[in-house]
Amino acid sequence: MRGDRNPYRGHYRRVTMLQQTTRVGLCALLAVATAGCPDDETPAADGSSTGDGSTAGTEAGSGISTGMADDTSMADSTTGDETTGGETTGEDLPDGNARFIVGERVLTETDNLTRPHLLTYAQGGVVSLVELVPELPENASVIWADVVDQGLTLVYCTAAPGDAAHPCEVRDLRSDPPGPATSLAVTPVPAGATLQYPEWVASTSSFLFSAATLDGSASGIYLAPAADGIVGAPVPLVVSGPGERVSSGFSVDHDGSRIGYLRTPEGGPPEAWIAPANPPDPMTAVRISAPVDPMQQLHVPQFVPGLDAMIYVVDSDEPANPLALSLWLVDVSTPMPGTPVRLDDPLAAPLQIRRPSIASDGHALVYYLGAEGELMGELMLVDLGGGAPAPPIRVSTPSDSGVEVTDWGWSPDGRWIAYMGRHEGPEQTDVYVVDASSTPPGDPVRVSEGLIDGGEMMIWRFDADGHWLYMFGQIDAERPGLFRVDVSGDTPGAPERVGDPATWADEELVFSSTGTKLLHAAFSGSPSVRQLALADVSGAEVGVSTIINDALGRDVDVGYGPQFSRDESVVAYRESGPGFDAPQLLHLVDLTTLDVVEVDIDTKWITAAADLP
After folding, report:
1. Cα distance from N-terminal residue to C-terminal residue, the chain
2. Which of 168, 425, 506, 517 has its CA 20 to 30 A from that of 1?
3. Is residue 520 within 8 Å of 509, Cβ to Cβ?
């Protein structure tokens, strides 16, 4: 079997599967923090990316990626007093400017619950630790949380035993302690409706969310204005008519002026629609998709960045070709949309399209074309920048060359397409990039030079401006390491190691807000221990990585999901183990002194809130 000849392959694929398991549900719906998804429920940081090249920017329910990188109970923690694990830190400490939302883990006999807290740190100590959702019923939990509005607002949804609805609330973080919660589930939202996770629209300072009753009798998409921490009553943008249903997923235009969604008539297949978000006039909503066969279904249409157009995908459920897809573009520059234009070549069974992805500037789209259950397919590019869409052309290694194409996506600036290529002979996995900024695009370039015989690259990821491509794999040694390649010039540079060669790296990468600092995991010793390393990546040369975690106990590792504070002065991480039931204590590293402060709270996840002056 593949992987038996490389002992690290099995280990890292198991880690990846674990991480993917936690992504199901929340992380498949929304963009997540730069660290990817920590264990269990995970907050999605404002302006974040997924941490790898495979799913960045995917809209809820769409099947199309935009390619854009845009973000143990403590009994006295509800008081807002200056406490850390119930102990006073001293009243002489001023209000801090490093703040985190910390998801406390509460273990019960049957469940693993979440209680979010706001932690404020300053001058070597914890100033306050305030429970943000103190009124939950017994065994209720926060099932999703997101810090938005440049870190000034928390939005979250909860679930309680026996309560089918998932109410969502908003808290203003502009003060310490924060302002009161505002519910989104108020009139005209139907009573008892289940809300889908609200999406923050920065351009209009508002929340968009969908809501539906359990019996399906009412469904719709709503807008709640929010300014300076004050959330207004929801306004219906789209509501279902008799016997029909409005999709829970939707997309938003770049300026927040329009939404794309699905409407399913009674007894009919879904239809793609576009509607204004301001003013909310339901009479101006129009269908953009062509009629489809009842055996077919659509995905939520997506806006093309830089173009006044939308793209949608059609699934065919015909028995002869059950998984084939087609891809369509619609001009929406006028009140009446244009006729949909097919972007892909008509498919012959058993070919199918997988995960179409649009460049951040909208100049092109790339998708995978291959047979069901096989990886010997090709990446096809459609140029959208010349007025009429151009016919698709292959940009990956030819499928008859014995290379399996996986994990593809765009650089943030829309110049490069990166993908993984698994070779049958020699058996190894490389990283390739294609310069897609010109017409026609360039040829694939292998950037994982120095890969050992039978070696494997395991992830790739661009930094925020597309200057560097970071990769993790077995370059020059059997133990995997972290490397980066300069892709700012005409041709990619050679791989440069990030971190100490005496350690071996892990797949998780967390960049600071300015992109000048990088957190990455480093394993060392026997048995190996997962530790947290900090590297300066601000210049042409990588600074020496420094282990910044506190001394670890036996069978204890640094957990997934460490975070920088927004001012980059503090790093928060949790220790994991030994065993699932052991408290996963929160630790704060002051990057000025490298002092570590332990906080007695069992932590599930961490994300940064806005720093107060």
Report:
1. 57
2. 506
3. yes
